[in-house]
Design goal:
9 strands, about 300 residues, two-stranded antiparallel ribbon, alpha+beta, about 20% strand
């Protein structure tokens, strides 16, 4: 049979060339299967490797989170303990403030002052009357002020309010002490035949009180301790009693305001077992009672004296 090719010669050449190389470029099914198996195997290795690393990282993160949570709880517990300790310390200081407020160090011991007055009297000078008055005012302790200022600073640093009932509920309590100022009005008489001698005796007594010594009797007594370093002289009035000339005079002294020990600059009370020591004023009272027990009245006690 005769075949007649009606295609152009160029296209015929291209088809023949494609038929020659076509079978060589075809891939067999086995090759495709092997290639697919390799791809799947590599993908599995990659997938499981990534998953292993992800799982390992997750375990590490869980362990780290557990440590962070444990440390957070421990920090919170220690912070709570520190706050309780600070609260206990604040309450202790407040209680010590009250103790010191009730027993101030600069309190006047009048039994001691009366003995000193007797020691400092010159000859022919007598005390006829003593009047002690006191003014009491309420003052906040220095330790209480410091605690309140510290609390205000902490609240402001945290951006919290310091006024109002809700804010003041967490504020440290205010501790007050009674500030006492005592006034001593002393009235006495000086006896002598001449007016100038009576004035000299009054002036000598005045100087003895300020100086704290009686040079004539060679006695020292720090009478002005606890008083303001000033004596107001009320003048001398000449009088005649029983046909004898005397001069009646008056002095006014004011004590320093009483104040408790400042816990911010001094050591707290020391506690040994069950016995509390450290209050100087209490020890001074005991010493004064011991010193004055059984003593006889000294010079000047024969005059007419009244303690009002």
């Amino acid at each position: 049979m005769i075949r007649i090719n009606l295609l152009p010669e160029k296209e015929v050449k291209q088809r023949r060339a494609a038929e020659r190389i076509g079978p060589a470029r075809q891939v067999s099914p086995l090759t495709m299967l092997i290639i697919a198996a390799v791809v799947v195997l590599l993908g599995s290795f990659y997938y499981f490797g990534v998953q292993r690393r992800v799982a390992s990282r997750k375990v590490a993160e869980d362990s780290l989170n557990e440590q962070v949570n444990r440390l957070t709880k421990e920090i919170a517990k220690r912070k709570e303990g520190a706050m309780k300790l600070q609260e206990a310390e604040r309450i202790t200081k407040s209680m010590l403030d009250i103790v010191y407020a009730l027993d101030p160090e600069n309190r006047l011991l009048w039994s001691e002052k009366l003995n000193q007055l007797s020691d400092l009297l010159p000859q022919n000078v007598y005390i006829s009357r003593l009047i002690v008055t006191e003014a009491v005012s309420k003052k906040e302790t220095a330790s209480s002020k410091r605690q309140h200022d510290q609390w205000v600073a902490e609240q402001k640093a945290q951006g919290k309010k310091t006024t109002g009932k809700a804010a003041q509920a967490g504020a440290p309590p205010t501790v007050y002490y009674p500030e006492i100022v005592q006034t001593l009005q002393l009235t006495g008489i000086a006896y002598s035949e001449s007016d100038s001698e009576r004035i000299r005796l009054i002036n000598e007594f005045y100087n003895n009180l300020l100086r704290g010594s009686n040079e004539a009797a060679k006695i020292s007594a720090d009478f002005m301790k606890g008083f303001a370093k000033q004596i107001d002289f009320g003048g001398a009035i000449p009088r005649v009693v029983g046909g004898r000339g005397i001069a009646e005079f008056s002095f006014t002294l004011r004590s320093k305001p009483t104040a408790p020990k400042d816990l911010g600059t001094s050591e707290p009370l020391r506690i040994s077992g069950k016995k509390v020591t450290g209050s100087k004023a209490v020890q001074d009272v005991k010493k004064a009672k011991t010193a004055t027990k059984g003593e006889k009245p000294k010079r000047g006690a024969d005059a007419e004296e009244t303690l009002e």
